[in-house]
Amino acid sequence: MPKTKELVKKKFQLAVVTLDLKFGKQITDEARKRGIEAKLYESLDRVPLSTDAVVVRRNEYDEVLSEKMFVANLQSSPRSIVDKAIETGYRKKKVAKATVVIDPGKKTGAAYFADDILLRTETYFSNEPLIDDVAEFFSNHPEAQQLVLVGEGAPDFRQTLIEQLVEKIPGLSTENIITVPERNSSKLAGGKDEIAATIISWTRRKQKRI
Q: What crossing angle do the helices spanning 78-89 and 127-139 adopt, rounded to 10°?
């Protein structure tokens, strides 16, 4: 069973190099929400060698000077930029499988994976922001296999969510959606490493489809 890479345990270090303090704060704030050690620098030569990934802003740096470096578009959300920076830090040049694990209910938990890398967990109190985030996540991984794993519990919430996901996300169909036992998706939404590894292994097996 594969081990899921968990950022807090690894002490992932992110540097943001920019003269745009507003942009820098948005990225470092998003990273720190995930337990990542994130620092802002004015120039690349100040970044410690131990740093896992470096985010720079397009128009300030247009050339990739290191395999640790990610050039961010200003149109991208801080959430997407930090996702891509983490993938860069793990030298994940191409993601084969983009997976979102959802525990539906009045308070919905979700975990976002790039292959075996747990990028983040989120909590939602309505479906609209969740659907927007899933759509954005998949749009950032257009060449990856896109999967949604949904907990079997809360059937009314689950069915409504599935219908909305298929309706509102281009290219997503019920073939991309798999139901899994709720006890596992619930623990995953809480960020448990062992359950995350189990969920990842399940994506390689034939599961009950919607």
A: 50
Find where tokens 């596992």 sit.
184
For domain 7-89, the question of CATH label 3.20.20.70 is answered with no
| Cross-strand bridge partners of residue 107 | none
Return the domain boundaries, the chain.
Answer: 7-89, 97-202
The residues, any chain, with a CB within 8 Å of residue 137's CB and separated by 6 or more, are: 80, 83, 98, 100, 112
Query: What's the rounded Cα separation, in Å, for the pair 28 and 72?
Result: 13
Ranges of H-type helices in the chain: 7-10, 21-33, 78-89, 127-139, 155-168, 182-189, 193-202
Q: Are 147 and 134 in contact (CB under 8 A)?
A: no
* Per-residue model confidence as pLDDT tens digits over 192-203: 444 444 554 444
Contacts of 76 (CB under 8 A, 6+ apart): 84, 140
The class (CATH top level) of 97-202 is alpha beta
Residue 38, both tokens: 């994130």
Amino acid, single-letter form, for residue 79: R
For the stretch 165-188, pLDDT in tens is 999 999 999 999 988 875 555 555
**How far, in Å, CA of 196 to CA of 184, rounded?**
8
